[in-house]
Amino acid sequence: MKIADHSLRAEQRLLLFSVFVVSLCGIVYELVLGSLASYLLGNPVMQYSITIGFFMVAMGIGSYLSRFFSKHLLRTFIYVEVALGLFGGISVTLLMFLFSFEASYYLLHIFFLLAIGVLVGLEIPLVTRIMKHYGALRDILARVLSLDYLGGLAGSLLFPLVLFPYAGRYLTSLAMGCANIAVAIVLVAKMKYSSRSGWDYLFPASSIALLLVFALSSEQMNGLLNKRLYFDDVVFSKRSKYQEIVLTRSGGDFRLYLDGSLQFSTYDEYRYHEMLVFPALFASRAENKEVLIMGGGDGLAVREALKDARVKKIVLVELDPAMLYLAKENSTFRRINADSLRDARVKVVNGDAFKYLIESRERFDVIIADFPDPHDEALSRLYSLEFFNIVKRALRPGGVFVTQATSPFAARHAFWCIHRTVKEAFGSAIAYHTYVPSFGDWGFVMAPAGEVETPKELQVRYFSAETFLQSRHFPADSSDVPVRINTFNRPVLYTYYLRGWKNSD
Which helix (H) or strand (E) segment is 399 a member of? Predict the structure, then answer.
């Protein structure tokens, strides 16, 4: 009798541990699919809302469907785990492969949300009914639901802190798929149930073998997926803690992509960087200039600033250490940025620009913001009234601030929102724009407003006093429009941005 009781307790512990694992996997699948949709399509708020909505509905459908399973519950649960492992494991691979066909991608995205959600919804009702023989229902429910919630918490912490930064979406989905199938294999091996067949061993074993093959060939698979996503040859690809960094090459043209968004093309990046850097440098009257560059970890804005002999010190603040390492150590990048990050006048700080401005007591003559576009709420804070007020505090008397401000043509309301927000913080601001072939019409905002004196001797390819004068004229289709100020409390900028780019496609 004691042996039987010990065996029952062991089975109960095994099933409860299975609840924890499958709950962890379920929440990670949801986060993976939400983050992938945000990465590929932008607008994280919308993508996560759609993902959570469809996933919750599918879980409800799965819970409802569980009532139709009355026989062989343990075997059914084992097969659900194998199917969930397969669907979840291959989801990222297929979704990324079909991304170039937008309609097919979104249909497949919804399909995987529904399929995975239904299977996740089946799990807890099935386990609860399996375990009703191990004690009172109220005790079983309390244990099952407690471990279900704990598994969800573990998954929601594990994904952003460990899995996503170090494994990426592709390996994370495969790892979770293997975990689901491993649960099935352990249950087949350890649990006693009737009508056992060879297929009960073959199905999970062959499924986990398939996922392991995908995992072991991750480098080759990532190469194939990158070729699908990028037209040019991929010469560098790395998943950092913060973003996906990809460098491509087509002939002599190198292009940098961060999270799938083009950051520069060596064919024409000088237009962008000269217009970003020189107006602010030449609007400053300081003789020995100290410059702060926020973002711009590629070193290209630093390269341009170093051309002004009056610049004595540059502090570059970049969040991603992987980007800094690439800019300082990669031979191609060092050639592109003219080894700017190794210059004695340059101090590189790895950290968050927002935090740096709050904690640092340094003051600067020129501050340059070379941040990514405000395509989500998190980036939108770097273009907020509160942030610009902190920037203003870090400027010396007579100091000048400039920020890139997206396209006044494609994202007209977003551009003028940035302009109005900067003007609110500084009292005055200059809006200007220029044509960059890789991006189209691109805009900048500088504050406070003042004259720009251009030195006669300057090694430039595009910028001049005449070019800057022309850049301040906006035709009717990109001129000022009524917009609200972007603040922490009301981050309207990213909605302007997403609406503008969506309409321009």
Answer: strand 395-404
